[in-house]
Write a structure and sequence with these properties.
Elements (H helix, E strand, L loop, with lengths): L2 H6 L5 H6 L7 H12 L8 E3 L6 E3 L1 E7 L7 H13 L4 E3 L8 H13 L4 E6 L4 H15 L4 E6 L8 H5 L4 H10 L3 E8 L2 H10 L4 E5 L13 H10 L3 E5 L6 H4 L4 H9 L5 E6 L2 H12 L6 H11 L2
Parallel strand pairs: 3-4, 3-10, 4-5, 5-6, 6-7, 7-8, 8-9, 9-10
Antiparallel strand pairs: 1-2
Helix pairs in contact: 4-5, 5-6, 6-8, 9-10
Length: about 300
């Protein structure tokens, strides 16, 4: 498997493979990916509004998994976070249970010195009032901050349900209390199901929603509800954050390239896409792609989708 080659060039990677399946890569998409591969970025990361929050976030954000979620990689993780901020990334996503706390612990030393440069998001996997209150105190200590910009219900429909959130003394009430006290600024929800997240947006005025989104529809539940989810998000001015762009690296291992996968997701109406990082070189490449991003046409989106689902 020639992963390095696939990361360097779109044409010689999976779209070339697609030709053998009767698919033809358009000249437009090839030209875009060649430019991303050969031209250093001289532009800042484009920004988009994060729903009704009033914040402008870079279209590429730093995810809290991979190296950031390793207890034995503290120095490397801190280097990645610092480099991300140096490159203009202003959105970082983490969670209380990433790496059994390692992700928040590794982000914390940078937040202690550079907190004002970042819109910081974390998550509670506990759907009760008391459990969430305990988790947020733990997250604040780990992250070395006195507030979290976006606090989210982690993985709705697996770690908890809408019915639980509607109950008395639920995590939803804890979130509202924390917002009133200024401990968190905005309330969000995350999940893998377009249907479940659409139902959540119908049920409550969330500020943001983090959703699985990738060209292969890997780990995307109920993709037939994706249009409904985006329609509701736009109607209610909910900031949409995309995750699992590369499905924890699995899609790249299958022969797909980040120069396909990231632009594909960014061509949806998302505010930002978060990607976990293993080393600084991958971070720098992703920033270069995001900085030169141009929306894919409907034809190009179809081509990438066809390759990803072969």
């Amino acid at each position: 498997m020639k992963t390095d080659r696939d990361r360097r060039t779109f044409l010689e990677g999976s779209l070339a493979t697609a030709t053998g399946l009767g698919l033809t890569a358009s000249e437009a998409i090839v030209a875009k990916t060649v430019a991303w591969a050969t031209e250093p970025s001289t532009s800042p990361i484009p920004k988009r509004p994060l729903g009704k929050t009033g914040h402008q976030v870079g279209i590429y954000g730093l995810g809290g998994l991979f190296t950031l979620a390793r207890h034995d990689r503290r120095d490397q993780a801190v280097e990645i976070v610092n480099r991300a901020l140096d490159l203009g990334i202003n959105y970082i996503d983490t969670a209380a249970n990433y790496g059994d706390g390692a992700s928040e612990l590794n982000i914390g030393p940078v937040m202690r010195k550079r907190r004002t440069e970042v819109f910081l998001a974390s998550k509670s996997h506990n759907y009760t009032y008391d459990g969430t209150m305990a988790l947020v105190e733990q997250s604040l200590r780990r992250l070395q901050t006195d507030h979290i910009d976006l606090y989210q219900h982690h993985h709705l429909d697996k770690l908890g349900t809408l019915d639980q959130l509607r109950q008395k003394n639920s995590a939803r009430q804890a979130f509202e209390r924390l917002r009133d006290k200024g401990v968190i600024r905005y309330i969000g929800v995350t999940g893998h199901s377009s249907r479940v997240l659409a139902d959540a947006l119908d049920d409550y005025p969330y500020d943001c929603a983090l959703i699985t989104l990738n060209a292969a529809r890997a780990d995307m539940d109920d993709p037939e509800d994706l249009d409904r989810f985006f329609r509701l998000a736009q109607e209610k001015k909910v900031g949409v954050i995309a995750m699992k762009v590369v499905e924890r690296g699995a899609l790249i291992k299958l022969g797909l390239g980040i120069r396909q996968l990231l632009p594909y997701v960014l061509s949806y109406p998302v505010a930002t896409a978060v990607v976990g990082i293993t080393d600084v070189s991958h971070l720098e490449e992703n920033v270069r792609i995001a900085s030169g991003f141009k929306p894919l046409s409907a034809e190009e989106m179809t081509e990438v989708r066809a390759v990803a689902r072969r």
